[in-house]
Automatic annotation (TrEMBL):
<feature type="binding site">
    <location>
        <position position="102"/>
    </location>
    <ligand>
        <name>GTP</name>
    </ligand>
</feature>
<keyword id="KW-0479">Metal-binding</keyword>
<keyword id="KW-0501">Molybdenum cofactor biosynthesis</keyword>
<feature type="binding site">
    <location>
        <begin position="10"/>
        <end position="12"/>
    </location>
    <ligand>
        <name>GTP</name>
    </ligand>
</feature>
<keyword id="KW-0342">GTP-binding</keyword>
<dbReference type="Pfam" id="PF12804">
    <property type="entry name" value="NTP_transf_3"/>
</dbReference>
<comment type="subunit">
    <text>Monomer.</text>
</comment>
<protein>
    <recommendedName>
        <fullName>Molybdenum cofactor guanylyltransferase</fullName>
        <ecNumber>2.7.7.77</ecNumber>
    </recommendedName>
</protein>
<dbReference type="InterPro" id="IPR029044">
    <property type="entry name" value="Nucleotide-diphossugar_trans"/>
</dbReference>
<keyword id="KW-0963">Cytoplasm</keyword>
<feature type="binding site">
    <location>
        <position position="102"/>
    </location>
    <ligand>
        <name>Mg(2+)</name>
    </ligand>
</feature>
<feature type="binding site">
    <location>
        <position position="69"/>
    </location>
    <ligand>
        <name>GTP</name>
    </ligand>
</feature>
<keyword id="KW-0808">Transferase</keyword>
<comment type="function">
    <text>Transfers a GMP moiety from GTP to Mo-molybdopterin (Mo-MPT) cofactor (Moco or molybdenum cofactor) to form Mo-molybdopterin guanine dinucleotide (Mo-MGD) cofactor.</text>
</comment>
<feature type="domain" description="MobA-like NTP transferase">
    <location>
        <begin position="7"/>
        <end position="157"/>
    </location>
</feature>
<dbReference type="GO" id="GO:0016779">
    <property type="term" value="F:nucleotidyltransferase activity"/>
</dbReference>
<feature type="binding site">
    <location>
        <position position="23"/>
    </location>
    <ligand>
        <name>GTP</name>
    </ligand>
</feature>
């Protein structure tokens, strides 16, 4: 298994479609959304960091560390979480497994496919791709690429979309046929 693999679970953002509630804490099948993702992730990685902007006690009890978006890239979307990670951990090495807190059905097999792709592809981003397209919040990213390229990319970016950044770095699709695992919860009536 990949050495130096840090999971970054994104639980920040505004959750506007959920009325501003803390998405990660909302119950899906009786458990907080974030716990579903943690459950399949923990045994695959060396450490877990959760990116959030609220309820730090709740998240701290689940992860090795909790980070907040940092200036000047606060609440610009998922790239803010990645920026905060490399800003906070300047000596981080290896790869980051990026995950959102709001896909509770993601499987260990899908994450293992992403992780094992780094054995033959050390330097590109590996990103899940289903028949409906790229799944940019399910990706493995070399830390060094983030450290070198993300600050400058954000300075010059017209948009803060994650996929644009991956294409800038070079991105390998990891095709995944089980679309239902990517079920994405954005509204209360989807819980
Ligand atoms: N750290 C961080 N995470 C974010 C940010 N925006 C979104 N996320 C996370 O990225 C994932 C996808 O988020 P979206 O569904 O696009 O946005 P959201 O803020 O959760 O919800 P909406 O406001 O309804 O679009 C979720 O896991 C969010 O927690 C951000 O600005 N900073």
């Amino acid at each position: 298994m990949n050495k130096n693999l840090t999971a970054l679970i994104l639980a920040g953002g505004k959750a506007q479609r959920m009325g501003g509630l803390d998405k990660g804490q909302q119950l899906y099948k009786g458990r907080p959304l974030v716990e579903h993702v943690l459950g399949v992730t923990k045994s695959l990685v060396d450490s877990v960091v959760i990116s959030t902007n609220q309820n730090f006690d709740f998240y701290s009890a689940l992860a090795d560390d909790v980070i907040e978006d940092v200036d000047p890239w606060i609440s610009i979307g998922p790239l803010a979480g990645l920026y905060a990670l490399v800003h906070e951990y300047t000596d981080l090495r290896g790869h980051v497994l990026l995950l959102p807190c709001d896909t509770p059905c993601i499987s260990k097999e899908a994450l293992m496919a992403l992780i094992s792709s780094t054995e033959s592809n050390e330097s590109k981003v590996s990103c899940l791709k289903t028949e409906s397209g790229w799944q940019p919040l399910h990706a493995v990213i070399p830390v060094e690429k983030l450290q070198i390229h993300l600050p400058e990319y954000l300075e010059h970016a017209q948009h803060y979309g994650v996929m644009g950044f991956y294409h800038h770095l070079g991105c390998l699709p990891i095709n995944w046929s089980n679309q239902t695992e990517l079920l994405n919860i954005n509204r209360l009536d989807e819980l």
